Amino acid sequence: MRKFLTGLILIPLGVLFIVFAFANRHLVTVTFDPFDASDSLAGVTLPLFILIIAVAIVGVVAGSVATWFRQRRWRQVAHQYEADAREARVELADLRARWESRDTPRLPLSDLTRRAG
Fold it and tell me: What is the Cα gyration radius of the chain?
């Protein structure tokens, strides 16, 4: 089922990328020199679809990095809770070990019910 859904999403997306690339394959020049746009050292000429896809990829990466930094506080809280849980498990194991190794004789269950009632 998962492969079917992956194919259902990826095949149309791939077709969309191919159609987009075919329709926008003309060359554009991107320059970083605001004073001399004809300077070939500060610019690059490439197909439009590569430029648009590269900008989209940079946007996705920038958004992912920003999200990762915003979640820093929650990751720290999760690490603290994991440390607390680890410490509680160790303490519980220690208490169980001390309970199991105590020397006092245990009362049978029938004595406990008789005392309670």
Answer: 33
